[in-house]
Amino acid sequence: MGATPKPARPRGRHFFANPGPTNIPDSVLLATAHHTVDFNDPSFAEVYWGCVEGLKRVLRTTQHVFLYTGSGHAAWEASLVNLLSPGDAILILESGHFSQSWGRMAQEFGLELRTVPADWRRGVEMEAVRAALAADTAHAIKAVGVVHNETSTGLTTPVAAVRAALDATGHPALLLADTISSLGSLDFRMDEWGVDAAVGGSQKGLMLPTGLSFTGVSEKAMRAHAESRLPKHYFRWSAMLQRPLKSFLGTVPTSLFYGLQESLRLIEEEGLDKVLARHSRLAGAVRAAVQRWSGNDGPQLFCLDPSRYSDSVTAVLMPEGGDADALRRVALQRFNLSLGGGLGPLGGRVFRIGHLGDLNEPMILGTLATVELAMRVSGVPHRAGGVEAALDALAA
Question: Where are the transmembrane segments (predicted)?
Answer without folding.
Answer: none
